[in-house]
Amino acid sequence: MKTWKALSARSAHGVVGPLGALTAVAVVVALLIALTSRGGAGDVVGEDVSAAATSPKSNLLPKEAAKKKEKYADWDGKVKVLGDGSTSYTGPQPHQLKPQKLKPGEKPPQFVVFSWDGALENDDRLFSRFRRVAQESNATMTFFLSGMYLLPKSKSDLYQPPQHKRGSAAISFPTDEHIRETLQQLSGAWREGNEIGSHFNGHFCGSKGGEDWTTDEWKSETEQTYSFVKNWKTNTGFTDIKPLPFDVDVETVGGRAPCLEGQKNLLPVIKSLGWRYDASSPGDFQLWPSKIDGIWNFPLQLVPYPQSEKQVLSMDFNFLYNQSGDSTEGDPSKYTEWERLTREGYLNGFERVYHGSRAPLFIGNHFETWNGGIYMQAIEDVMRNVCPRKGVRCVSFKQLSDWLDVQDPEVLAKLRMLDPAESPDWPTFTKK
């Protein structure tokens, strides 16, 4: 059996190349601030990829969770168009994992969550590409939508970002055509069982970004995110596109803050909304998840960078930073090697837990063609490699939350004590 050298939290925490993890995150923020959306694509129709639909279960904020569940308790099977017709309720989301409690002595599944920040279908057609890859790999994923990607540039003044000028953003407002195509992708992705989470709006980082925002400012940002999704018809004037097939108030149960900043002041806001998880932590080891004040904490993770003692955060941008620094167009002669190192880095992280603790693996991405698109090809290769494997479940963060919520707390506590590369005697380990 192939195993990976265990890394203790004391000796390896924060090592990302020559910098500590937190330092590296702070450095890479500078480039993320400068990145803008580019601006295409069509819908994809595919086959079923997972089990039958099941209603989400949450142990978080019982009153709020119950309110969401009861909202459609008397659903009559007919589509309910909401608000101005931008959204609708079409029933429980299809193709959801049915969470089952581990049986005594049972080995946990190897969960892998592929997530995407921004979720805009632009001219690169990466949203539609990876929907297709997921279907062919028996996977579902999480798409973190930036709400302003459904707001036309001509209506940019509707956005009032905290601590910034009205109508401004650190990313570009979409073209009308890209809004149309993104709406198609969101509808198709949800019907295929993928999660639509939140990436908020303007992607402000660093000074006057999320880390500097108060809880009230995060509340404003979040409320505007909901508004842009729920009112895209009014804001765009489009009359020939069907409503999104889901109720945003019910389906939004988690998100990721831009540049992984501001979790402390964001948590009270998302807790008040009944969200179940947050993926905004700057990075940690490949450990079984725990909660922060009742919210599942799903951080990016440190995975072994090939041919070195380095650890790199499990996101495309962090591989880029270790390879070409602050340039998204590095030396083309190195693309093939960088692509191989990226692919092997993700696989190193996967193999370590797959043959070890079985802790879920979290991978973050952007729909970008940095360094010739090598990070997109690497992640496609990884998805096709790992998702069909025995015992592996490539799921959304929401589906993982469903599964974690039905587990025995004592078993989860024991799992959290495992080193990522530690493979116990499972029949003995998971018995109470």
Structure explained in plain terms:
- With 432 residues, this protein is of the alpha/beta class.
- It has a single domain, classed as Glycoside hydrolase/deacetylase (TIM Barrel).
- The protein is 36% helix and 12% strand.
- It has helices at 9-12, 21-34, 62-70, 126-136, 176-191, 215-230, 232-236, 248-251, 263-272, 316-324, 335-354, 370-386, 397-405, 409-416, 426-429, and strands at residues 15-16, 19-20, 80-82, 87-89, 110-118, 142-145, 195-198, 254-255, 277-278, 290-292, 295-297, 302-304, 311-313, 361-366, 392-394.
- Strands 5, 6, 7, 14 and 15 form a five-stranded parallel β-sheet that branches. Strands 8-9-11-10 form a four-stranded mixed β-sheet, sandwiched between helices.
- The radius of gyration is 21 Å and the shape is globular.
- The chain starts with 8 loop residues before the first helix and ends with a helix.
Shape: globular
Contiguous helical run count? 15
Mean of pLDDT: 87
| Biggest sheet record | 5 strands, parallel
CATH level-3 fold name: TIM Barrel
The second-level CATH architecture is Alpha-Beta Barrel
- Gap between N and C termini: 26 Å
Which percent band covers the strand fraction?
5-15%
- Low-pLDDT stretches are 1-63
Would you count the extended β strands for me?
A: 15
Secondary-structure element sequence? HEEHHEEEHEHEHHHEHEEEEEHHEHEHHH
Our Rg estimate from Cα atoms comes to 21 Å
Structural class: alpha/beta
CATH top level assignment? Alpha Beta
Helix content: 25-40%
Number of structural units classed as domains:
1
